[in-house]
Amino acid sequence: MSQVQTIFKNMSWLVISQIIASVCGFIWTILMARYLGVNNYGIFGFATSLTGILAMTVDFGISNHIVRHIATDYDSAPKYIGNAIPLKSIFSVGTIILTLIILILMKANELVITVTLLFTIEIIFKSFIGLLNGSFQAFEEGKYQGIGNTILHVLLLIFILLTIFTDLGLIGIAVSYILANLIALVYEYYVLNKHVVKPKFELDTGFCKNIFIFAIPFAVTGLLYNIYYSIDIVMLTNMVGDYPTGIYNATYKLISVLSLFYSTYTAVIFPVMSKFYKNDEKLLLISFEKSIKYLMLVIIPLAVATVFYSADIIQFIYGNEYNGAASVLCILIWTVCLLFISGAANTLLNASHKEVAVTKIYAVAALFNIILNLFMIPKFTYNGAAMTTVLSDVLIVIIQFYIIYKLGHRPNKKLYIDILKIIAGSIILGIALYILNLNMWVALPVGIIIYLAVMYIIRFFDKDDKYVIREILGKN
Q1: What is the pLDDT along the chain (476 residues), one digit of tens a residue?
Q2: N or C: which end of the chain has fewer CB within 10 A?
Q3: CA torsion through residues 360, 268, 184, 200, sign
């Protein structure tokens, strides 16, 4: 099986599972937002954001380090995984203590403390799932990650439905997350042990010390990344209250659903790019260029359509109580486009062993984000937080491409031409939607036909793209 076919096989499992996960997530997002109301949904957003920031204290970058290492040396997997699990268990206890200290210092009320601690337990289980998923990625066994992801999201939807039906409130929602992640964790460990690799459990202090040292750049980057993408919700809660946080969080959850597809792509392509770096740097750059091309092909027209129908989308999903979220959606949708570009760039830099550079980028971005939010949130509340996020993403992309050019990884000029074609096609799509003024549901199929027709007319797909398609189909 060729490398392209292997990538497509893993992508297929993960994309199918992600479609199921996104549908489930879409349903429970609607149900939870309507059930909890804006204020309680704001508390939910605060709890998940704070624990998201602290998630890296459970992992400390170990999972990313292991993926890169065992992707090029399968024989090392039992020792790496066998030491990582007990090491992460020790870190987990420290995370719970740290979370409690932060909540006390913030003078949080009893409900906020309880809910946040429950989500800390959930984030610990999720971190262990991340380690197992990293192992599946390294062995290019996307099937098991896909099945585990499906189990997690289907069970979570069922538990949330039961919580709403029995009216268990915000605490019941938090417990639902814990139970779903625990069951998915048990499944993934079982299949890892039976079908992929058997961990050799030990706590080799010297080996663990080396793992920790090599993983530190990933840990710092992950922490800064989590701060960067979650601090706005924490700051909104503390500066303007639960209601604006609930409005912003409602939109952020929709954006997160789209971001999951980027995560799926990265999960498959990162170990492959690590191999390319070791064996053929030319292929590394090509995979980077194709990543941006294909991701932009999908997300830019989607962003244009979202701007046109933001009010309809919010009304349909959340109802009148969340009308203020329409303006946030118009702004935040562009952060997904930038995230896809920065994500591909991060993958290139990490695969090239330039994780320290990535750490520095997110250090600058996190500081920029916090300082700008201090001015924007008091003046524009949730819209200010959204504008800050987009501006911060622009800064990240600029710095990333500056570093990539300095490293000598200069993307082919054709990539820029392709992006211009995508932008042109998306502008034509926007003009067509404006002139036709269609109902949102009618505009969806009509817009897809218009966009694909334009891309065909301007000859967007070249011979390399056709070669990739033939490889996937096994026709070469």
Answers
A1: 444 445 555 556 666 777 788 788 878 888 888 898 888 888 898 898 888 888 878 877 777 767 766 666 677 777 778 777 888 888 888 899 999 999 999 888 889 999 999 999 999 999 888 888 877 777 766 678 888 888 999 999 999 999 999 999 999 999 999 999 999 999 988 988 887 778 777 777 777 777 777 777 777 777 777 777 778 888 888 888 778 888 888 888 778 767 666 665 555 554 444 444 444 556 666 667 777 787 888 889 999 999 999 988 888 888 778 888 889 999 999 988 888 888 778 777 876 677 678 778 888 888 999 999 999 999 888 899 999 999 999 999 999 888 888 877 677 778 888 889 999 999 999 999 989 888 888 988 899 999 989 988 888 877 766 665 555 455 55
A2: N
A3: negative
Query: 3-class SS at 330?
Result: helix
Q: CA of 417: how far to CAs of 242, 293, 374, 459, 464, in Å?
A: 45, 10, 38, 11, 15
3-state secondary structure of 476: coil
Tokens representing 435 are 């002139």
Angle, CA 124 vertex, CA 121 and CA 125 arms, to 5°: 95
* Unique residue bearing structure tokens 């030990």: 202
Distance, in Å, from the CA atom of 330 to the CA atom of 383, rounded to the nearest integer, reads 10
- Sole residue written with tokens 């993403």: 393
Cβ atoms of 154 and 94 closer than 8 Å: no
- The three-point CA angle 235-237-238 to 5° equals 65
Helix H, strand E, coil C: the string for 148-189 is HHHHHHHHHHHHHHHHHHHCCHHHHHHHHHHHHHHHHHHHHH
Stretch (H or E) spanning 325: helix 325-351
Closest CA to 124 of 212, 58, 66: 58
**Contact call for residues 306 and 317 (beta carbons, < 8 A):** no
Q: Is 324 helix (H, G, I), strand (E, B) or coil?
A: coil
pTM over 0.90: no
Per 3-state DSSP, the chain is made up of helix, strand and coil in percentages (nearest 5) of 90, 0, 10
Confirm if 84 and 58 have CB atoms less than 8 A apart.
no
Alpha-carbon distance values, 251 to 212, 273, 378 (Å):
36, 33, 19
Residues 6 or more apart whose CB falls under 8 angstroms from that of 140 comprise 6, 10, 271, 272
